Structure formats: structure tokens, C-alpha cells
Amino acid sequence: MAIHGLWIINKAGGLVYQRNFADGLAQLTSNEYLVLAGTLHGIHAITSRLSPTGSSSGAEVIEGETFKLTIHLTLTGTKFVLLTSLVETTAEVILQKVYEIYADAVMKNPFHTPEMPIRSEGFDSKITTLIGSGQ
Amino acid sequence: MAYSQPHPRLSVLSNSSQSSVDQFSPTSSSARYSLPSAPSIHTTLGSTKAPGPRPNIYDRNLNKTRIAEVSASAFAFLFSEIVQYTQKRVSGINDLERRLNTLGYRIGTRVLELMVWRAESSSKAPKRETRLVPALMVIHTQVWKAVYGKAADAIEKSVENADEYMIIDNDPPIERNISVPRDMGGLSCSSFTAGIVEAVLDGLGFPARVTAHSTPTSQFPSRTTILIKLEKSVLEREELLKQ
User: Fold this and answer.
1) What is the ipTM of this complex?
2) Where is this region: Disordered (chain B) (predicted)?
């Protein structure tokens, strides 16, 4: 039961928010995070076209041997990605709450430019209350 | 006080910002006020022919909306746009705060009129606050309740200056979702509220300069102090009334 990290990817595939919550993740540079987010954006676009039965909203969970990656796609194309341990069962619920916080603290903040990196103290502190202290 | 021209505070373009007038509004002053012109109302009514004439907002009973509530989210988005719109047209933080203050002032004059009408029109002996402290109490409770649906958290009198009073709100609803970036340190979007307070004080006959300052505490990160600096004439009159 652990939450490792949270990413927010805008509709163009750019990483606008990234935060680690626990040790154990490989330390990457911000450039590497950007590349990973862009790759995930591409993979997600592919998975959304793979469905044999009608349209699909794309990958929702990607599981590895040691971790799980849960993707929440909003109607506007923003993706919320949560990296958790395999046994974590509340990932979807948490992502839904993150989306709520995002709508409040980011979209209603006049000093935020849409599609740009999120620098908002209110958002940071609300995420900390939801998930726990970050690094 | 006698004004040779319309009160400068009633106009978004006050004289002190003449430099930015050109980019703000190339047309004449009529664009500043959003009163619908009469012909457009008639044409819309004539062309649509909705089931029965639509009630004009000006003809509605003012008490109908007395307990009505506005979606906080809708207001947050609107206020966010107001700040962004204003920010695009100013040269600095002071200018931004002054314009937000002016926008609030235009609301404050209407709030006072509506509030007094609702509270006193049915009373047999309508009254008006003439002393400073009761007037501040009215702002602290009634104005805040009329505008934000809750009372403010405290009124304080400045220790250093006799002409300064402070109204404190621990969690101003208009700032709940706003995070001011570090490079705009001193900005407080509650200047809007300060404008409302200034208008109400002006309307009650207590001319003052009202400004907003964020005074965060660890418990209340968006705690805001509305600082009221009264004009000398007000304090002199208070002295006379005391006797």
C-alpha cells in the first residue's frame, strides 16, 4: 500500500505537474520525466484505437511486476496518472479527488495559464493533505 | 465635498490611469456602463416570441433574490476572469489592486442601497448608522452576510494610528482558490472587497481609504485584513458627537 508519484499530462502530451511521494522511485531529471510523459501520451493514444468493439477511452491501468500505473482521462483530454504499489486499491478514488482539487485550485486560479506547468501553492498543499507529504 | 465632475471612483478609468486609457477603451465613455439599450430589448422580444413576455430583470421583485444563492464555483470562475482581464490592462500590482478596488466600489454602492432598503423599508422607524463603531459592525456582519453569506471574523482598532480600523476575514470566499505567485508578493485580490467596504463607508458618510492586505497564518493561509484609514473629518465629527 503505497503511492509513489503523481503526474498530470496536458492534452498535448506535456507534463504539467510531477511529484514523488515516497522513496524507492528512480531519481530522474525533469527532462526524463518529460520524455516519459510524452511516451505515455503516445501509448495512450494507441491504446484508445486498439479496441475491437467500438470506441475506447484508452488504457486505464498498466501493471508491472512491482508497480501499477493508473490513468484517469478527463473529458477535456487532461490525464492524471498515479504510480502506486500493486495492492493499492484506491487509486481511482484518489485520482478522482485529485481532479476535483485540480478544478478548484488550478482552474479557478487567475494566475494559472491553461496547458502550462502548475505552480500553485494551494494545489500543492491540498495534494499534500490528500496523499501525504512529498519530497 | 464638491466634485466638479463625476466622482472619479465611479469610473473604471480614473484620472490617475490616463496613460493606459488608449488600450483600454478606444470608444467613448458609454462602453463603460453595461446598461442594455432599449431598442435591443424590443427587437429580441419581437423576434423570438417566447411563450409570454420574458420578465425583465429590472421589473422583478428585489426581495425575490434575498435568500437566493449563487454557485460558488461559477462565481470563482467569473472572479478569476475578472482578475485576468484586469491584469492584462495594468502596469503593476498597485494599479491592479486599484482597479479591483474600483470594481468593488461599484458593487458596494449598490449593496448598501439594497441592504438598507431590505432592512429598513418595512420598519416603522427606519434608521441609519451615524456613529463609526456601529457602522463598522454593520459592515462586519450585515454587509459580509449580504455579499459572502457569512460574517467577517474580527474588527480591530489600530494601536498605532487612531484613524485606522481593520476588518479581518480568516477565509475570504473570493480568495479560496487563488494562489498568488511569489513574484507578485504584495498582491491581495481582496482589494475587490476593500472597494465594497469603501463604497459602503462612503455611502454612510464615513469617507475613508480602504486597502486589503494578506496576513496569512499557518492555520488560515488566505487570511486577509481589510485596512480602513478614515478621513480626518470623520474623526473630528466623532469627537463632537461624543460630547
Assistant:
1) 0.84
2) 1-56
